[in-house]
Structures are given as structure tokens and as C-alpha cells.
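Hi Y.,

Following your request, here is the sequence exactly as I used it, all 261 residues.
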Amino acid sequence: MNSIDWSIGSYERTAAQLLPAARVVVDSAAPSAGERVVDVGCGTGNAALLAAERGARATGVDPASRLLAVGREQASAGGLDATFVEGDAAAIPLEDGEADLVLSVFGVIFAPDAAVAAAEMARVTAPEGRIVLSAWIPDGAISRMARASREAIAAALELPATPPPFAWHDGEALAGLLGPHGFEVATEEESHAFAAASPSDFLDGEWSDHPLWVAGRAVLEPRGEVEPLRERVLAILEAGNEDPDGFCVTSRYVVATARRG
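Below is the corresponding structure, written out as C-alpha cells. Let me know if you'd prefer a different format.
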């Protein structure tokens, strides 16, 4: 979905963390048996596999071939009607109107060009179809942690200031994005808890496994800037911790449903 190689690290761990949110999105979308479902930015296939469990004919789309292989293995093991193909939100490998339901669980939000991604999702959605996606609300400890990482990498690379990313969580912004394609948008707020034995334990897992952190370390380590970022992020997690006996932080997100009016 962007320049990050999502095959690096071990995204499988993150996928397992986010499975409850994928269930919320799929439950909201309510795919029925026989519906054609495409999961954009599917990763290891959480949403595609859940849709297939309901009898839908699911296709997962992602640029990371290694993660697609994981999804195929899970589909085969479960005897599910789910296929996985390489592609991204800027060029979804489906024909016009081929999907009754387009899903994206924290996937399309990483698309470099929101307008192009929206046009592609609209293109592959059938006339009576719908788009259901989830997007993080940019607040809370996890959001601040990610922002600290982005700032550290941008400073290390001396990157120029960039405009803020598209507000996929904002209903009005989504209406402006998808409205020209004939969609009306409704949103519901949900929340997801990230938990671990301690703040440092959670950070260790993210540091070693999450593709974004693995890519960030590759930039910062040669400059000796890993430990200052780690200390800053750990302080953010400790300040936001909701469980004095372990670690838990709650992140809010939006489930948006777009239907043609």
C-alpha cells in the first residue's frame, strides 16, 4: 500500500492482534453466502477468511507476496473459498463491478493516493454493492507511538515536511472522497485493546516484528538513533497504560460503510 515492504518482520503477529477488529468489520459488512468479496490490503487475509467462513467467495489483495502465501495456507487448511492475488489499492486486479463487497481492515488507509484508491474501490464495486473499511482515529498511545517513529525517521532522513495523510476516519472527508462515485457514507466508532505483559514487552514485540518498525530500525540504527526513539516511545506507552498489573491501551477506530445512493 506504500513504500514499506510489509513482508519484512513478522506481520503475522500483528494480524493476530487485529483479528478482533477484523471480526467487527466483517460482522458490520455481513457478507452472505455466494457474495463476491474483495479484501484490499488483506495482509495474511483476516477479513477475506472471515468472509469465506460465511460462504462468500473471497479474494484477498495485497502487495506482499509472502503474506498472501500465509493467507493461502490458512484458506487451504480451513477448506475455505478464498483466493489471494498480488496487487494494491491503486490497481485492484478485478474487473469493473466484480465485487459485491469491498473490505479493507486498516489496509487502504496506507494508500499513498487516497483519491486513486477510492476510484479503484468504486470501480470494482457492483452497482448494488458496498464498501466497508476501518480506519484508526489518530489519538491515544498507539497513535502517538507511531507519530514519534515517523518524526524520528523524517528527521534522520532530513525529509521535507509533508501534508497530513488523508483522514480516512472522518465521515465528512470520506463522503467527499466517495460521494463523487455515487456513494453515501455512514460511520460507527469502535475500539480495540492492545495488551501485553508490560509496556516494554509490547514494545519489544512491535520493535522486532512489525514491518513499519523493522523498516524504521534499518534507517535509525546506522545513525545511532534507535535508543533515543525507544526511550521516547516507551515513555508514551507507560503514560498511556490502562493496566497497572500489565499493559493495555485502547485505540479508537471507525468502521465506515459506503453504499451507492
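The radius of gyration is 18 Å.

Thanks again,
Q.
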